[in-house]
């Protein structure tokens, strides 16, 4: 025992980008790892499940969990890590809001499984067998975790103390969160550890955003040439900056792409998708029914656009709109 704070990291339903965001700390990773004992990090270090089982309740100072909860195994691990940890930190959009994997909530469980295992052109499954909870393979019983009906956010499964937002979070935010834990200067429980204001408030293009925006047409980025210094919305390109928490260093804007909302809503917004659609509706400067329909029809996949990161945490939650029967 060294007496250093113990840190764990775990990966549920996500792409792995949040794990890479820890590696993106670069040389700061050495500072952090020198100050803590990493006691569980399956993606990087050879700890076993039984190592966590053997720990006392509350023994881990802080566990960062990334990814949404879709599988029984993930829920089990989240609950166990909750018991073993003084602090649980939702790490990244999928744990925070459901993330891109939460878009699966537009579909029924059965439709997802049959699409994936029976219909996609690359599948070779002539008997159309779907994954089973138990299978006998060469005389051995193989068990798979169950696949839940919907994708859940981490806080729908366990109590979450803090959240580091983003897809993925910036290394600066991860480092700052770790330093807050180490230096015991955390804000009130439940806080999202990023900017309080909306992205627009700190956006490098905010001065070119008119006070009164008026849009008569939405354009997609490939349909137009836009001024790389000017606010996207002022150019008629949908940008979710007004409905999104700041703190990402305007990564997409600086790469000349509009915001898609991965930092989630600000504290005073309940539903980021509803907020996004209402602010866009408020700037459309057309009253004629046909013209209005044309503008709205020019937004491809509004559900996927407005809820790209937040469907599982939204007021729609698991309601499915795209089932096939
Ligand atoms: S709408 Fe987008 S581009 Fe315009 S100020 Fe806000 S974040 Fe920046
Ligand atoms: S600009 Fe928007 S989508 Fe891009 S990193 Fe920031 S919050 Fe996420």
Architecture overview:
The protein is 29% helix and 14% strand. The mean pLDDT is 93. The strands form 3 sheets. The chain has a 5-stranded parallel β-sheet, sandwiched between helices. Strands 4-8 form a two-stranded antiparallel sheet. It has helices at residues 17-23, 28-35, 49-53, 72-84, 93-97, 109-119, 171-182, 199-202, 251-254, 272-283, 289-297, 302-306; strands spanning 6-11, 37-40, 60-66, 69-71, 85-91, 134-137, 140-143, 147-152, 162-164. Helix 2 (28-35) runs parallel beside helix 7 (171-182). The chain is globular, with a radius of gyration of 22 Å. The protein has 3 domains: 6-100 and 149-182, Rossmann fold, CATH 3.40.50; 110-147, no CATH class; 199-313, no CATH class. The chain has 325 residues and is an alpha/beta fold. Strand 6 and strand 7 (140-143) form a beta hairpin. The structure holds iron/sulfur cluster (2 copies). Residues 199, 244, 248, 250-253, 259-263 line the site of one iron/sulfur cluster (SF4).
Q: Give me the number of helical elements.
A: 12
Category by helix and strand content: alpha/beta
Number of strands: 9
CATH architecture of the largest domain: 3-Layer(aba) Sandwich
| Lateral strand order in the biggest sheet | 2-1-3-5-9
Tell me about the biggest sheet? 5 strands, parallel
Overall geometric form? globular
Output mean pLDDT. Answer: 93
Along the chain, the helix and strand elements come as EHHEHEEHEHHEEEEHHHHHH
What gyration radius follows from the Cα positions, in whole Å? 22 Å
Low-confidence stretches: none
Q: So what's the oligomer here?
A: single chain
The ligands bound in this entry are: iron/sulfur cluster
Helix content: 25-40%
% residues in beta strands: 5-15%
CATH topology tier name of the largest domain? Rossmann fold
Our count of domains comes out at 3
Distance between the termini: 58 Å
Please report the first level of CATH classification, the CATH class of the largest domain.
Alpha Beta
CATH homologous superfamily (4th level) name of the largest domain = NADH:ubiquinone oxidoreductase-like, 20kDa subunit
């Amino acid at each position: 025992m060294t007496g250093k704070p113990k840190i764990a990291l775990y990966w549920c339903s996500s792409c792995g980008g949040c794990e890479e965001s820890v590696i993106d700390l670069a040389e700061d990773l050495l500072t952090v790892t020198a100050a803590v004992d990493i006691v569980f990090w399956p993606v990087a270090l050879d700890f076993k499940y039984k190592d966590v089982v053997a720990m006392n309740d509350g023994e881990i100072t802080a566990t960062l969990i990334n990814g949404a909860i879709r599988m029984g195994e993930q829920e089990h691990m989240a609950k166990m890590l909750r018991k073993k940890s003084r602090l649980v930190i939702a790490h990244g959009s999928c744990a925070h809001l459901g993330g891109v994997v939460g878009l699966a909530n537009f579909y029924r469980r059965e439709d997802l499984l049959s699409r994936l295992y029976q219909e996609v052109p690359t599948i070779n499954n002539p008997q159309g067998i779907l994954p089973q909870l138990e299978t006998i393979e060469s005389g051995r019983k193989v068990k798979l975790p169950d696949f839940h009906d919907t994708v859940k956010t981490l806080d729908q499964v366990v109590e979450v103390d803090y959240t580091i937002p983003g897809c993925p979070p910036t290394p600066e935010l991860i480092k700052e969160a770790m330093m807050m834990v180490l230096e015991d200067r955390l804000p009130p429980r439940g806080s999202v550890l990023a900017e309080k204001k909306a992205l627009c408030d700190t956006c490098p293009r905010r001065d070119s955003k008119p006070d009164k925006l008026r849009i008569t047409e939405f354009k997609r980025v490939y349909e137009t040439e836009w001024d790389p210094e000017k606010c996207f919305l002022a150019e008629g390109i949908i940008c979710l900056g007004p409905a999104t928490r700041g703190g990402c260093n305007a990564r997409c804007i600086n790469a000349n792409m509009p915001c898609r909302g991965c930092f989630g809503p600000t504290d005073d917004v309940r539903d980021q998708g509803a907020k996004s659609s209402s602010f866009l509706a408020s700037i459309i400067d057309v009253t004629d029914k046909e013209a209005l329909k044309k503008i709205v029809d020019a937004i491809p996949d509004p559900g996927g656009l407005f809820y790209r990161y937040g469907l599982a945490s939204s007021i729609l939650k698991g309601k499915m709109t795209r089932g096939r029967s």
